[in-house]
Amino acid sequence: KPNAATAEGWLTYEEADALASKISERLDGYVKITKQNRTKHFPKEQWWLLYEEILKDTDPEGTVETKNLQIYATPQNVEYLTAWTAYTNDGTYGFDGLSLDAYIDREIRVRLRNHEIITVIEKASDEVQYRNVWVASAKPGELEVYWGKAKRTFVAEKSFKKPEDMINQVADISMVNGQLRKITLKKERISGKVLAVLDTSIELEGYGEIPLEENFSVYKIYGDFKVQKKSDILVGYEIQEFVVANGKLCSALTVREFQAERIRVLLMNNGFQSIFHDQVTLRLNSAATLTVGKKEIKMNSGDTLTITPNDERLHAGRMILTPEDETQGIAVESLERAQGIPYYPGRLEIKQGQDGLLLVNDLYLEDYIKRVVPSEMPGSYEKEALKAQAVCARTYAYRQIRGNTYMQYGAHIDDSTRVQVFNNIRTDEKTDIAVNETYGKVLMYQDSVLEAYYFSTSCGHTTDGTVWGTDLASVPYLSGVAAKPGGGTLDLTDNINFAEFIKNKSYPSYESEFPMYRWSTSITGTQLEQKVGDIGTITKLSMKERGTGGIGKLLEIEGTAGTKTISGQGRIRSILGNTELVITKNDGTTMTGSDTIPSAFIAIERSEPDANQVTTFFIYGGGYGHGVGMSQNGAQGMAKAGMSYQDILTFFFTGAVIQEV
User: Fold this and answer.
1) Which of 152, 157, 187, 158 is nearest to 70 (CA)?
2) What's the predicted TM-score (pTM) here?
3) Measuring CA to CA, which residue among 251, 546, 234, 249 is closest to residue 406?
4) 353 burial class (0-12, 13-18, 19+ CB within 10 angstroms)?
5) Would you say 12 and 42 are in contact if contact means Cβ atoms under 8 Å apart?
6) Contact status, residue 472 vs residue 480, Cβ threshold 8 Å
7) Cβ–Cβ < 8 Å for 480, 462
8) What is the pLDDT of residues 159-214, one digit of tens each?
9) Which residue(s) pair with 153 in the sheet?
């Protein structure tokens, strides 16, 4: 019988036999139990043999694995490290309940599950080599190095001849029986613009793709020293130097501060359906240089260039087309945007991708913003609204550059609505002025560039950052506000209060005159069943939870055969969307539906089932978009009311300040 004594005591032969037989019929009788050994301790060696057999029946996915690890540090020898965490040549692992102190600077064979060491099988070797550590300081017979998050001091048996030559270098350190025996310095460094950061290599301009050595490390060595990650290596910039040995990159050293001067945009194909292109045709508006591998080819204004995936020139790597005059741009005749054939300032790069050609536009950040603003906001809008949009777009782009999302493709951002639309509409003088007059300005919160989300239209109230599962404490500037003079917040989390609010078309707001301020539509249970499925005939829709501003966060769908719960504003909009819907706008005009409804700021009412037992649900909604951050039409209404772009931005982003970076 289970009790404290049996739980905390030794595993017996009898208990091991019972466990094995319950797990698998195959293991019934595996434990050789006798009258003499029934209550005796089950030996550790036999337990692990039994464990291996148990895994065959209980772990077909192989979640438990066996691996060799070099133990570099634990809280035993580096006090500030996280408790029960081992720092190894393969990253960090938990080891709760085990003792690893005797294995520091040794290689051990272990069993792992979910990044936790569950047992040490054996000591594999007394010899280890720590690759690509950073030598922070050195004196005769003593080294202080960083590897991972751990800082270690090693004492050598003999004094070093020139310890000063070891400082601020990358090195391999060899240990035998816990003693420092050999140091190999790696002094060769190269630099160049980073064009892509891949799983096993990094592409540098002028060098091509260079493979990464195992245990590749990244260190920030200017200002306060910091161990970084591979994702901190920014594409499009030359802020790192790379340590090279034996034809591989051993370490990246961040040697200077990031300055957001340029951005790299991954251009999508027609209709923004894919990042891959079947063909790329370019026409030059100025003389340019085409770089193919190490070869440079001069081209003239008016020349055209067509590249297909089987173009032999791509065998040399990325093709780079650099105009003499970046402002004149390069026309991409194989693309079609709302403006027609688009042209792009800066340079264009073509690379063979997995499913076609990748096309990257490398340009100045300010030129990028000039082509985002008219694509995201009508150029006819008030100047202060356009300036607010420019600051939002620049702030968002700055975060995207640092985020390095597309680093494997050699870009920071794409040109679709998934991020922010770029170069879909031609620039004009008014939008250019808005960008120029806000040059370099971004939104900051407590000395950090914030997440500058924006959307089309509010329902009279924005929501907060928790709609995406984010903790509000991490984005306090995205707190939600009533889009009316004086701001403040309204309590709209109750269904009755929200229904009264959303049905009121004349509720005063900066954007109450815009068509999508209020809208309505209806959807049948039959239409819903096409997306929901598995719960029979749909009979009821209930909003079980609302967020700030009344946005729907938890929708319950009841059917004759069950209930489904839809969580999150995006999923709610998607489940209620249908191309057959007719949506009536605030001004009485209509539009056809899409795969998502305009927003999740909705109240739902239902009719009684008709003769065919089909229920119709009436949706009263407001606004267009996710509702977080700045409402673009709200900004226009505020600008018309005489507010400056600074007033508009600090209205929507609580506690934010505007600074130039």
Assistant:
1) 152
2) 0.88
3) 234
4) middle
5) yes
6) no
7) yes
8) 888 889 999 999 999 999 999 999 999 999 999 999 999 999 999 999 999 999 99
9) 144
